[in-house]
Protein backbone atom coordinates (compact mmCIF):
# COMPACT_ATOMS: atom_id res chain seq x y z
CA UNK A 1 0.00 0.00 0.00
CA UNK A 2 1.30 3.52 -0.80
CA UNK A 3 2.50 5.69 2.02
CA UNK A 4 -0.06 8.22 3.25
CA UNK A 5 0.56 11.82 4.26
CA UNK A 6 -1.47 14.58 5.84
CA UNK A 7 -3.02 17.34 3.76
CA UNK A 8 -5.42 20.17 4.45
CA UNK A 9 -8.43 19.87 2.19
CA UNK A 10 -11.10 22.51 1.62
CA UNK A 11 -14.38 21.14 0.33
CA UNK A 12 -17.82 22.42 -0.56
CA UNK A 13 -21.17 20.67 -0.03
CA UNK A 14 -24.21 20.71 -2.33
CA UNK A 15 -25.34 24.00 -0.75
CA UNK A 16 -21.89 25.48 -1.55
CA UNK A 17 -21.04 25.63 2.14
CA UNK A 18 -17.27 25.46 2.56
CA UNK A 19 -15.49 23.28 5.13
CA UNK A 20 -11.88 22.52 5.94
CA UNK A 21 -10.39 19.30 7.30
CA UNK A 22 -7.15 17.37 7.55
CA UNK A 23 -7.15 14.35 5.21
CA UNK A 24 -4.81 11.39 4.65
CA UNK A 25 -3.73 11.24 0.99
CA UNK A 26 -1.29 9.25 -1.11
CA UNK A 27 0.86 10.47 -4.00
CA UNK A 28 -1.70 8.93 -6.35
CA UNK A 29 -4.22 11.52 -5.11
CA UNK A 30 -2.08 14.46 -6.26
CA UNK A 31 -2.87 16.33 -9.46
CA UNK A 32 -0.93 16.05 -12.70
CA UNK A 33 2.55 17.49 -13.04
CA UNK A 34 6.04 16.48 -14.08
CA UNK A 35 7.82 17.20 -10.78
CA UNK A 36 6.97 15.73 -7.35
CA UNK A 37 8.38 17.60 -4.38
CA UNK A 38 8.78 16.93 -0.67
CA UNK A 39 7.39 20.10 0.88
CA UNK A 40 9.79 21.22 3.61
CA UNK A 41 8.39 24.65 4.40
CA UNK A 42 5.40 26.72 3.42
CA UNK A 43 3.70 29.84 4.73
CA UNK A 44 0.33 31.36 5.48
CA UNK A 45 -0.23 34.34 3.21
CA UNK A 46 -3.27 36.63 3.33
CA UNK A 47 -4.59 34.84 0.24
CA UNK A 48 -4.28 31.47 2.00
CA UNK A 49 -6.31 32.95 4.84
CA UNK A 50 -9.01 33.94 2.35
CA UNK A 51 -8.93 30.43 0.80
CA UNK A 52 -9.25 28.54 4.10
CA UNK A 53 -11.85 30.82 5.68
CA UNK A 54 -13.78 31.18 2.41
CA UNK A 55 -13.88 34.94 2.96
CA UNK A 56 -13.13 35.56 -0.73
CA UNK A 57 -13.39 33.23 -3.73
CA UNK A 58 -9.72 32.21 -3.96
CA UNK A 59 -10.51 28.49 -4.29
CA UNK A 60 -11.67 27.65 -7.79
CA UNK A 61 -11.52 23.86 -7.72
CA UNK A 62 -13.21 21.54 -5.21
CA UNK A 63 -11.91 19.87 -3.18
CA UNK A 64 -8.56 21.65 -3.00
CA UNK A 65 -5.36 21.57 -1.00
CA UNK A 66 -4.71 25.29 -0.33
CA UNK A 67 -1.28 26.92 0.08
CA UNK A 68 0.08 29.20 -2.64
CA UNK A 69 3.78 28.73 -2.03
CA UNK A 70 6.30 26.22 -0.80
CA UNK A 71 9.98 25.34 -0.72
CA UNK A 72 11.23 21.78 -0.84
CA UNK A 73 13.32 19.11 -2.50
CA UNK A 74 12.57 17.33 -5.76
CA UNK A 75 11.59 13.73 -5.13
CA UNK A 76 11.11 12.75 -8.78
CA UNK A 77 11.08 14.63 -12.06
CA UNK A 78 10.53 14.06 -15.76
CA UNK A 79 11.07 17.78 -16.44
CA UNK A 80 14.38 18.62 -18.20
CA UNK A 81 15.30 21.40 -15.74
CA UNK A 82 14.92 19.43 -12.51
CA UNK A 83 16.55 16.39 -10.95
CA UNK A 84 15.94 14.44 -7.76
CA UNK A 85 17.51 16.33 -4.86
CA UNK A 86 17.20 19.83 -6.37
CA UNK A 87 16.05 22.52 -3.94
CA UNK A 88 13.14 24.51 -5.35
CA UNK A 89 10.62 27.25 -4.61
CA UNK A 90 7.11 27.66 -5.94
CA UNK A 91 5.03 30.85 -5.83
CA UNK A 92 1.63 31.19 -7.42
CA UNK A 93 0.71 29.93 -10.90
CA UNK A 94 -2.71 29.03 -9.51
CA UNK A 95 -1.26 26.57 -6.98
CA UNK A 96 -3.53 26.71 -3.93
CA UNK A 97 -6.30 28.14 -6.14
CA UNK A 98 -6.92 25.76 -9.04
CA UNK A 99 -4.06 23.27 -8.53
CA UNK A 100 -3.36 21.29 -5.32
CA UNK A 101 -1.17 23.45 -3.12
CA UNK A 102 1.40 23.54 -0.37
CA UNK A 103 -0.46 22.27 2.71
CA UNK A 104 0.58 18.64 2.29
CA UNK A 105 3.82 16.74 2.73
CA UNK A 106 4.03 16.24 -1.05
CA UNK A 107 3.23 18.45 -4.02
CA UNK A 108 3.17 17.66 -7.72
CA UNK A 109 3.40 20.59 -10.15
CA UNK A 110 4.50 21.66 -13.61
CA UNK A 111 8.30 22.03 -13.55
CA UNK A 112 8.05 25.30 -15.49
CA UNK A 113 6.54 26.86 -12.37
CA UNK A 114 9.56 26.20 -10.15
CA UNK A 115 12.57 28.39 -9.45
CA UNK A 116 15.79 27.29 -7.74
CA UNK A 117 16.30 28.08 -4.07
CA UNK A 118 18.89 30.90 -3.95
CA UNK A 119 22.30 29.63 -2.80
CA UNK A 120 22.57 30.79 0.79
CA UNK A 121 18.91 30.36 1.70
CA UNK A 122 17.25 27.42 3.44
CA UNK A 123 13.70 26.29 2.63
CA UNK A 124 12.69 27.95 5.90
CA UNK A 125 14.32 31.28 4.88
CA UNK A 126 12.62 31.17 1.48
CA UNK A 127 9.25 30.75 3.11
CA UNK A 128 9.95 33.50 5.61
CA UNK A 129 10.10 35.58 2.43
CA UNK A 130 7.24 33.67 0.78
CA UNK A 131 4.91 35.08 -1.81
CA UNK A 132 4.38 38.19 0.31
CA UNK A 133 8.11 38.94 0.38
CA UNK A 134 8.68 38.07 -3.24
CA UNK A 135 5.80 40.44 -4.09
CA UNK A 136 7.43 43.14 -1.96
CA UNK A 137 10.59 42.67 -4.05
CA UNK A 138 8.56 42.93 -7.27
CA UNK A 139 7.12 46.22 -5.94
CA UNK A 140 10.58 47.59 -5.18
CA UNK A 141 11.79 46.54 -8.65
CA UNK A 142 8.74 48.25 -10.22
CA UNK A 143 9.59 51.50 -8.40
CA UNK A 144 13.23 51.22 -9.48
CA UNK A 145 12.19 50.64 -13.11
CA UNK A 146 10.27 53.87 -12.84
CA UNK A 147 13.41 55.70 -11.71
CA UNK A 148 12.51 56.03 -8.03
CA UNK A 149 15.83 56.20 -6.18
CA UNK A 150 16.56 57.06 -2.52
CA UNK A 151 17.60 60.57 -3.69
CA UNK A 152 14.14 61.24 -5.09
CA UNK A 153 12.58 61.23 -1.59
CA UNK A 154 10.80 58.98 0.92
CA UNK A 155 8.81 55.85 0.09
CA UNK A 156 5.62 55.05 2.01
CA UNK A 157 4.72 51.43 2.80
CA UNK A 158 1.11 50.66 3.77
CA UNK A 159 -0.02 47.59 5.71
CA UNK A 160 3.45 47.96 7.18
CA UNK A 161 3.31 45.33 9.91
CA UNK A 162 1.96 42.68 7.52
CA UNK A 163 4.00 40.32 5.35
CA UNK A 164 4.39 42.43 2.21
CA UNK A 165 4.90 45.56 4.29
CA UNK A 166 7.52 44.11 6.65
CA UNK A 167 9.66 42.71 3.82
CA UNK A 168 9.25 45.89 1.73
CA UNK A 169 10.50 48.01 4.66
CA UNK A 170 13.49 45.70 5.19
CA UNK A 171 14.50 45.78 1.52
CA UNK A 172 13.90 49.52 0.97
CA UNK A 173 15.85 50.50 4.08
CA UNK A 174 18.77 48.26 3.08
CA UNK A 175 18.77 50.01 -0.31
CA UNK A 176 19.02 53.39 1.41
CA UNK A 177 15.45 54.69 1.10
CA UNK A 178 13.83 56.81 3.81
CA UNK A 179 10.86 54.57 4.63
CA UNK A 180 7.58 55.87 6.04
CA UNK A 181 5.59 52.97 7.48
CA UNK A 182 1.80 53.22 7.77
CA UNK A 183 0.28 50.88 10.33
CA UNK A 184 -2.94 50.39 12.26
CA UNK A 185 -0.96 48.82 15.08
CA UNK A 186 0.92 51.53 16.97
CA UNK A 187 2.21 48.84 19.35
CA UNK A 188 4.35 47.57 16.46
CA UNK A 189 6.30 50.84 16.11
CA UNK A 190 9.46 49.39 17.64
CA UNK A 191 9.25 46.31 15.40
CA UNK A 192 8.89 48.53 12.32
CA UNK A 193 11.79 50.82 13.20
CA UNK A 194 13.84 47.68 13.88
CA UNK A 195 13.16 46.62 10.29
CA UNK A 196 14.36 50.00 9.06
CA UNK A 197 11.34 52.34 9.02
CA UNK A 198 12.47 55.94 9.56
CA UNK A 199 8.96 57.26 10.34
CA UNK A 200 5.70 55.66 11.43
CA UNK A 201 2.30 57.10 10.55
CA UNK A 202 -1.09 55.80 11.60
CA UNK A 203 -3.33 53.84 9.29
CA UNK A 204 -6.16 56.34 9.98
CA UNK A 205 -4.10 59.15 8.49
CA UNK A 206 -4.43 57.46 5.10
CA UNK A 207 -7.74 55.64 5.36
CA UNK A 208 -10.07 58.64 5.87
CA UNK A 209 -11.43 60.35 2.74
CA UNK A 210 -8.86 62.93 1.59
CA UNK A 211 -8.37 65.60 -1.06
CA UNK A 212 -7.78 64.80 -4.76
CA UNK A 213 -4.33 66.37 -4.34
CA UNK A 214 -2.63 66.53 -0.95
CA UNK A 215 0.71 67.85 0.22
CA UNK A 216 3.54 66.05 -1.62
CA UNK A 217 4.96 63.70 1.02
CA UNK A 218 6.73 60.85 -0.78
CA UNK A 219 8.31 59.99 -4.11
CA UNK A 220 7.03 56.45 -4.09
CA UNK A 221 4.82 53.94 -2.36
CA UNK A 222 4.33 50.23 -1.84
CA UNK A 223 0.64 49.67 -1.20
CA UNK A 224 -0.77 46.42 0.19
CA UNK A 225 -4.07 47.97 1.29
CA UNK A 226 -5.94 49.46 -1.71
CA UNK A 227 -9.21 51.41 -1.37
CA UNK A 228 -9.10 54.91 0.21
CA UNK A 229 -5.56 54.29 1.46
CA UNK A 230 -4.23 53.87 -2.08
CA UNK A 231 -6.21 56.92 -3.24
CA UNK A 232 -4.60 59.00 -0.49
CA UNK A 233 -1.13 57.59 -1.14
CA UNK A 234 -1.48 58.64 -4.78
CA UNK A 235 -2.76 62.10 -3.85
CA UNK A 236 0.31 62.72 -1.67
CA UNK A 237 2.90 61.40 -4.14
CA UNK A 238 5.29 64.04 -5.38
CA UNK A 239 5.66 65.17 -8.97
CA UNK A 240 6.70 62.31 -11.29
CA UNK A 241 6.55 59.72 -8.50
CA UNK A 242 5.11 56.22 -8.60
CA UNK A 243 3.14 53.83 -6.41
CA UNK A 244 3.35 50.05 -6.71
CA UNK A 245 -0.05 48.55 -5.85
CA UNK A 246 -0.20 44.88 -4.95
CA UNK A 247 -2.85 44.36 -2.30
CA UNK A 248 -6.41 44.84 -1.12
CA UNK A 249 -6.22 44.28 2.65
CA UNK A 250 -8.35 47.42 3.10
CA UNK A 251 -10.67 46.85 0.12
CA UNK A 252 -10.86 46.15 -3.57
CA UNK A 253 -12.19 49.59 -4.57
CA UNK A 254 -10.15 52.64 -5.54
CA UNK A 255 -12.06 55.85 -4.74
CA UNK A 256 -9.50 58.12 -6.41
CA UNK A 257 -9.49 60.98 -8.91
CA UNK A 258 -7.24 61.38 -11.93
CA UNK A 259 -5.69 64.53 -10.41
CA UNK A 260 -2.36 62.92 -9.30
CA UNK A 261 -1.93 61.37 -12.77
CA UNK A 262 -2.75 64.40 -14.90
CA UNK A 263 -1.45 67.21 -12.67
CA UNK A 264 1.62 65.57 -11.14
CA UNK A 265 2.48 62.85 -13.64
CA UNK A 266 2.20 60.24 -10.89
CA UNK A 267 2.19 56.60 -12.05
CA UNK A 268 0.27 53.69 -10.60
CA UNK A 269 2.24 50.48 -11.11
CA UNK A 270 0.27 47.24 -10.86
CA UNK A 271 2.16 44.31 -9.37
CA UNK A 272 1.08 40.69 -9.77
CA UNK A 273 3.11 37.79 -8.42
CA UNK A 274 0.91 34.89 -9.50
CA UNK A 275 1.47 34.93 -13.26
CA UNK A 276 4.70 36.96 -13.25
CA UNK A 277 6.99 35.68 -16.02
CA UNK A 278 9.83 33.38 -15.02
CA UNK A 279 12.61 35.86 -15.88
CA UNK A 280 11.11 38.41 -13.47
CA UNK A 281 10.77 35.75 -10.74
CA UNK A 282 14.38 34.69 -11.14
CA UNK A 283 15.49 38.32 -10.93
CA UNK A 284 13.29 38.94 -7.86
CA UNK A 285 14.65 35.88 -6.00
CA UNK A 286 18.21 36.84 -6.95
CA UNK A 287 17.61 40.34 -5.58
CA UNK A 288 16.05 38.89 -2.40
CA UNK A 289 19.27 36.91 -1.96
CA UNK A 290 21.34 40.12 -2.16
CA UNK A 291 19.07 42.90 -0.84
CA UNK A 292 17.30 41.32 2.12
CA UNK A 293 19.12 41.05 5.41
CA UNK A 294 18.68 37.46 6.69
CA UNK A 295 18.89 38.78 10.28
CA UNK A 296 15.86 40.98 9.64
CA UNK A 297 14.11 38.04 8.02
CA UNK A 298 14.43 36.18 11.32
CA UNK A 299 13.06 39.19 13.20
CA UNK A 300 10.00 39.45 10.99
CA UNK A 301 9.02 35.78 10.90
CA UNK A 302 7.33 33.37 13.29
CA UNK A 303 7.43 29.60 12.83
CA UNK A 304 4.40 27.36 13.26
CA UNK A 305 3.74 23.68 12.50
CA UNK A 306 1.28 22.03 10.11
CA UNK A 307 -1.29 21.84 12.93
CA UNK A 308 -1.25 25.63 13.30
CA UNK A 309 -2.18 26.46 9.69
CA UNK A 310 -5.97 26.62 10.06
CA UNK A 311 -5.91 28.91 13.12
CA UNK A 312 -3.28 31.10 11.44
CA UNK A 313 -5.51 31.43 8.38
CA UNK A 314 -8.23 32.95 10.56
CA UNK A 315 -5.75 35.22 12.33
CA UNK A 316 -4.29 36.63 9.11
CA UNK A 317 -7.65 37.68 7.64
CA UNK A 318 -8.41 39.35 10.97
CA UNK A 319 -5.18 41.39 10.66
CA UNK A 320 -3.67 39.75 13.76
CA UNK A 321 -0.49 38.37 12.20
CA UNK A 322 2.74 40.33 12.43
CA UNK A 323 5.27 39.95 9.63
CA UNK A 324 5.57 36.51 8.08
CA UNK A 325 4.45 33.08 9.22
CA UNK A 326 6.61 30.12 8.26
CA UNK A 327 5.16 26.61 8.41
CA UNK A 328 7.78 24.00 9.15
CA UNK A 329 6.56 20.80 7.51
CA UNK A 330 9.34 18.50 8.68
P1 LIG B 1 -0.96 40.56 5.85
O1 LIG B 1 -2.28 40.22 6.42
O2 LIG B 1 0.27 39.97 6.42
O3 LIG B 1 -0.78 42.15 5.87
C1 LIG B 1 -1.78 43.04 5.51
C2 LIG B 1 -1.66 44.26 6.40
O4 LIG B 1 -2.58 45.25 5.92
C3 LIG B 1 -2.04 44.01 7.85
O5 LIG B 1 -0.98 43.49 8.59
C4 LIG B 1 -2.39 45.41 8.27
O6 LIG B 1 -1.19 46.12 8.51
C5 LIG B 1 -3.04 46.01 7.02
N1 LIG B 1 -4.50 45.92 7.06
C6 LIG B 1 -5.27 44.85 7.35
N2 LIG B 1 -6.57 45.15 7.29
C7 LIG B 1 -6.62 46.46 6.94
C8 LIG B 1 -7.70 47.38 6.73
N3 LIG B 1 -8.97 46.99 6.84
N4 LIG B 1 -7.39 48.64 6.40
C9 LIG B 1 -6.10 49.03 6.26
N5 LIG B 1 -5.04 48.21 6.48
C10 LIG B 1 -5.32 46.95 6.80
O7 LIG B 1 -1.06 40.25 4.28
P2 LIG B 1 0.13 40.18 3.21
O8 LIG B 1 1.15 41.18 3.55
O9 LIG B 1 0.49 38.78 2.99
O10 LIG B 1 -0.66 40.67 1.90
C11 LIG B 1 -1.04 42.05 1.81
C12 LIG B 1 -1.95 42.23 0.62
O11 LIG B 1 -1.22 41.98 -0.58
C13 LIG B 1 -3.15 41.29 0.58
O12 LIG B 1 -4.27 41.98 0.08
C14 LIG B 1 -2.72 40.21 -0.39
O13 LIG B 1 -3.82 39.58 -0.98
C15 LIG B 1 -1.92 41.03 -1.36
N6 LIG B 1 -0.94 40.25 -2.12
C16 LIG B 1 -0.93 40.39 -3.47
C17 LIG B 1 -0.04 39.73 -4.24
C18 LIG B 1 0.00 39.99 -5.68
O14 LIG B 1 0.49 39.15 -6.44
N7 LIG B 1 -0.47 41.13 -6.14
C19 LIG B 1 0.89 38.75 -3.64
C20 LIG B 1 0.89 38.75 -2.19
C21 LIG B 1 -0.03 39.46 -1.46
P3 LIG B 1 -1.00 47.07 9.80
O15 LIG B 1 -1.48 46.27 10.96
O16 LIG B 1 0.43 47.42 9.82
O17 LIG B 1 -1.89 48.27 9.53
TrEMBL record:
Q: Name one Pfam family in it.
A: ADH_zinc_N
Supply the InterPro entries for this chain.
Acrylyl-CoA_reductase_AcuI (IPR014188), ADH-like_C (IPR013149), ADH-like_N (IPR013154), ER (IPR020843), GroES-like_sf (IPR011032), NAD(P)-bd_dom_sf (IPR036291), Zn-ADH-like_protein (IPR051397)
- State the Gene Ontology terms under molecular function: acryloyl-CoA reductase (NADPH) activity
Question: Where would I find the Enoyl reductase (ER) domain in this sequence?
Answer: 17-327
What NCBIfam families does the record point to? oxido_YhdH
Which PANTHER family does its entry note?
ACRYLYL-COA REDUCTASE ACUI-RELATED, SHORT-CHAIN DEHYDROGENASE/REDUCTASE
In Swiss-Prot or TrEMBL terms, this protein is called NADPH:quinone dehydrogenase
Source organism of the structure: Manganibacter manganicus
Amino acid sequence: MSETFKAILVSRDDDKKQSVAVAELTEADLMEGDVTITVEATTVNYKDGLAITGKAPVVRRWPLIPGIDFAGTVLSSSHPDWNTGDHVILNGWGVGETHYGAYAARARVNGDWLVPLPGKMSAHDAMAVGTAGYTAMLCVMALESHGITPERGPVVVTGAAGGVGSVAISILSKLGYHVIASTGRSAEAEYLTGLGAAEIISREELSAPGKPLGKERWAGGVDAVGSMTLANVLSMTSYGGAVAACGLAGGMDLPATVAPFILRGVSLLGVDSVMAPKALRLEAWKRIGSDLDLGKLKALSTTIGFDGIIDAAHDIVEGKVRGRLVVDMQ
